Amino acid sequence: MPAKGKHRRPKSQRFARSIAVAGTGGAALALPLMGATGAHAATPQSVSEKAVQSLPVTQKSAEKTAAEKSTAKTSTVRIYSVRVGDYLSKIADEQHVSGGWKKLYADNRAAVGDDPSLIHPGLKLSIGKKAKASTVKTGSSSPAKAKKAEPKKSSSKSTAAVQSSDTTSSSSGYTLPVSGATIGTGYRVAGSMWASGYHTGVDFVVPTGTSLKAVAAGTVVSAGWGGAYGNQVVIKLNDGYYAQYAHLSQLSVSAGQTVTEGQQIGLSGATGNVTGPHLHFEIRTTPDYGSDVDPVAYLRSKGVAVG
């Protein structure tokens, strides 16, 4: 019996297989149908899995794009090394800093310190943080090219403004010591605060860091500390008179140097005995204190409009 039982089971299995092939017998037929259903179900499941697997790829692509933008905006930041004669407003204009010297100072306050006028050659300034923000907004390289073209227009306007300022002063080789400034304390105003009992020059009201110009061609006879005058520059003009500039925050010339009309000789400030930033300007008959003449009358005699 055990032997016969063994032979019956294989027959039964072969018979079941033949029935399945023949398509008879619901129970036997159910197995291949279930298998087929499973086979068909695998296709949508694999699509679903592919969709799920593709999600991180999209995220990675987004992260990559963000990283590229970050790299691009970082590349717009440049390092500028301060040179002799530089000042923040000049650098901001030449480097086309959006926001001007105030933005440049705000971005570099840690390096510059509390006084924006006291920068020195070799100081490293970061330029382009404003441009970095613009790069993020545009998100493409095309606007960067457009932005690159803007400085050229700005530079042309700045140059035109400077030329206009110089040409409106005089055609006789003389100009104002500072552009666009108003006079605060006038010449010969009496007061106990001055050793002579009166004001020996005129005060042009300008903020610290404003460019100061030689009123005419001449030779620098002194440039340095002048006691109550703070940092000062005295220039012997070619007509024999002397121009004195006081309370400077920075000197751009040195003794013995020749200068031309309109050349920068320093930056305005509040050094020495002062109550606030301004330019104290004198015209003298000698390089020394006490030989002053009316500076406004002198400049007007040279064809320069003052006040």
What is the gist of this entry?
This protein is an alpha+beta fold. It is built from 8 helices and 13 strands.
Shape: elongated
Mean pLDDT: 72
Note poorly predicted spans: 15-49, 130-169
DSSP helix count? Answer: 8
- Distance from N terminus to C terminus (CA atoms, Å) equals 133 Å
- Name the beta content range: 15-25%
User: For this structure, what is the CATH class of the largest domain?
Assistant: Mainly Beta
Find the CATH topology of the largest domain: Glucose Permease (Domain IIA)
Order of helices and strands: HHEHHHEHHEEEEEEEEEEEH
What does this structure look like?
It is a single chain. The protein is α+β, with helices and mostly antiparallel strands and 307 residues long. It has two domains: 75-169, no CATH class; 182-301, Glucose Permease (Domain IIA) (Distorted Sandwich). It contains eight helices and 13 strands. Helix 2 (26-75) runs antiparallel to helix 6 (129-138). The longest helix is centred in the N-terminal third of the chain and has 50 residues, at 26-75. Residues 15-49 and 130-169 have low confidence and may be disordered.
Give structural attributes.
Glucose Permease (Domain IIA); 2 domains; 13 strands; 44% helix; elongated
